[in-house]
Amino acid sequence: MATPPPNARRTAPAELCRVAAALLLAASLLSAGCSRLSARSPPARRVEPQVRAVLQAHIAAAHPAPPRERKVPLLLVADAAGSAPAPEKGPQGAAAPPAEVAVSAAVPFAPGALRDVELLRLHDDRGAAVPLRAKPLAVWPQDRSIRSALVAFRAAPPTGGRAIYTLDYGAPPPGAPPQRAGAPATQAAETAQGAVLDEALLPNPDGPIAAVLPPSWYAASLVSGPQLPAMDDRRFPGFETGIEGALARMTPAYDAYGVTCSAPYRTYYDGPHALYQRFLRNGDAARYRRARAEAVWYRQHELRFSPDRRLAVHVCEREDWTPAAPLSWQVLRRMLGQGMVDDYLLTGDPAAREAVLAMGEALRQNQAALTGGREDVLRVTERNMAWVMMTLSSYYALDPRPELLSALRGLADRTVAWQQQGASGAFEHDLTRADPSECERGPRGGSPFMTALLVDALMDYHALTGDPRVRDVVARAADWLAERAITSDRRAFRYLWGCETDAYDDSGTADLNLLIVPVFGAAYALTRDPRWIEVGDALADVGVKEMLVKEPKHWNQAMRAFGRYLGYRAALPGAASEWQLSGGP
Questions:
Q1: How far apart are CA 522 and CA 460, in angstroms?
Q2: Among 385, 256, 373, which Cα is nearest to 324's?
Q3: What are the E-state strand segments in 158-208?
Q4: Helices 382-398 and 402-420: angle between axes, nearest 10 degrees
Q5: What is the pLDDT at residue 91?
Q6: What whole-number distance in Å separates Cα of residue 468 and Cα of residue 455?
Q7: Are 155 and 167 within 8 A, CB to CB?
Q8: What is the Cα Rg of the chain in Å?
Q9: Whole-number Å distance between alpha carbons of 167 and 355
Q10: Which residues of the chain have a pLDDT value below 70?
Q11: What span, in angstroms and rounded, lies between the C-alpha atoms of 543 and 514?
């Protein structure tokens, strides 16, 4: 990569930061850092060549946003993953121009950034207007602005395999009236005033051309929580190289694992979500295809739908299950709402939406059985509550009806009350009840790694509702982790806290650090107390060094939330430049 002029290296991050801050109208995660952007960025780490090529293409097309009109580069990659039509022959046997194919992309937006898909416009790599059809996929429940929009158009496979298109959003061309809803495609082609609203639009997420956005766009959109582009992770470069190397070297390979009900392989810890987190932080077509494949595999192999397809449970549940019986603990942790909502918001695939709604409805109808029987199943362990809250949050994100909000708030009420019933800040429960082999006597204790899952679920809930109670719950949990659940050498967390037969004061559990430290990032995001980042960074350093990623369960465990931690800490003063695409060597 050619080295940019010195002035460009100083000013480009500031310009891009202003663009991202304008996108992130929720403001707090980004604007605090942008105002303190330093003139000299830290040296950029080395990035694998295929990722750098994608990022360079995005950087070349990025421009500061005009006051009323905004743009985002859309990278088209003809990677032959789909079934492209055979080239036709022209006169005298000469090759005709390549045939156009359907291309679609789900474009996420930050809260408040877009309210009408008809204000979207598309231009190709020569600046020519491209007819565009679009429809909203989901809204942000608090302000009803568009969270993700499906856009579709036709394009020929680009010369050289890739091309940069430009998507304009948020304002019509100067002097042009807004595009009328339902206008025919010919009008859109003639005027290029905006996208044609098409509620019947079907996506083509697995076609021969993938369309992806810059990782900085995905980060600012908050589509799957706060993120930091992997290229800008200067604080933990060992995580980036370690997590990628582990995936490439895994033996047997990640996708060689199948379905099992006796051990947590393949998708445990939400493999689709972990792989989509990886894609969002890199923005390349290869990682998009890999995450997409895992989401489709999960639906095809691990979900069982009711005959009317209104309910879905994991295949390990009994065949005769009905909502009148509580779902088993093993099944609760295999209902992957986060990964399925990622797939829908990033592809528009209606099968992903169907899965989210069906799993969510199964859990909604099952709540009475889960909480009203001989015991409250959701309070047996923190992760039981966590997985249910994650899936109901995903359900509400796609179908924000009052009755779903009521069910979700009911879970939050129970979680708040659970923590308040103890004095420690933990979600205290009987450790022996969950697994006697791990603790022979522990009537009141807690699990740090399961608590981290519950905090992740609470942050999903908070992003959709703004419930102010989440701040204190997360801060108390972070205090407990930092002061009482940590090992005496302060390098890791006790596997269990409060076990009377084993103190678990063993930092050999440091491989769980990357799953747990996002709690401190969440605490910082909610309180703006920088000590939480100091605590998190110190424990993350140990976690990166001790990373254990031998099989999909371990890889998912390390990947599923650590990117969110990096996104939370990017708002720390002095860390703001990490949000930018540096273009460094």
A1: 11
A2: 373
A3: 162-169, 196-197
A4: 160
A5: 52
A6: 14
A7: no
A8: 24
A9: 29
A10: 1-69, 81-97, 172-193, 574-585
A11: 6
| Other Cβ atoms within 10 Å of 86 Cβ, number | 6
pLDDT in tens, 133-190: 999 999 999 999 999 999 999 999 998 899 999 999 987 655 555 444 333 433 333 3
Map tokens 């295809």 to a residue. 289
3-state secondary structure of 49: helix
**What's residue 82's pLDDT?**
52
Cα-based distances in Å from 296 to 206, 293, 303, 339: 11, 5, 11, 10
Write the DSSP string, 239-292. HHHHHHHHHHH-SS-GGG----SSS--TTTTTHHHHHHHHHHHH--HHHHHHHH
Residue 226 to residue 216: CA distance in whole angstroms? 10
pLDDT at 70: 87
The span from the first CA to the last CA of the chain, in angstroms, equals 7
User: Which residues does 10 contact at the CB level (< 8 Å), separation at least 6?
Assistant: 39, 40
List % helix, strand, coil for the chain (3-state, nearest 5): 50, 10, 40
Report the alpha-carbon distance of residue 291 to residue 206 in Å, rounded.
Answer: 12
Query: What φ, ψ does residue 166 adopt, rounded to 5°?
Result: -125, 125
Residue with tokens 């695939």: 349
Helices assigned H by DSSP within 65-203:
185-191
Note the pTM of the prediction, 2 decimals: 0.84
SS3 578: helix
Instruction: In whole angstroms, give the CA distance from residue 27 to residue 558.
Output: 28
Strands 209-212 and 70-78, by their bridges, are antiparallel
Residue with tokens 């992760």: 383
Size (the chain), residues: 585
CA separation for the pair 69, 53 (Å, rounded): 27
Query: What is the rounded distance in angstroms from the CA atom of residue 114 to the CA atom of residue 72?
Result: 13
Helix (H, G, I), strand (E, B) or coil at 121: strand
Phi, psi of 12 (to 5 degrees): -60, -45
| pLDDT at residue 264, as a whole number | 72
- Which DSSP string corresponds to 536-584? HHHHHHHHHHT---SSHHHHHHHHHHHHHHHHHHTTSTT-GGGGS----
State the Cα–Cα distance between residues 355 and 321, nearest whole angstrom.
18
Give the residue from 264, 228, 123 showing the smallest Cα distance to 581: 228
Say if CB 349 and CB 105 are below 8 A apart: no
Nearest CA to 226 out of 351, 74, 108, 403 is that of: 108
pLDDT in the model for residue 95: 57
Q: Bridge partners of 584? A: none
**Distance between CA 489 and CA 503 in Å, rounded?**
13
Cis peptide bond prior to 252, omega within 30° of 0: yes
DSSP 388: H
**409's tokens:** 């708030």
Q: What is the pLDDT of residue 153?
A: 97
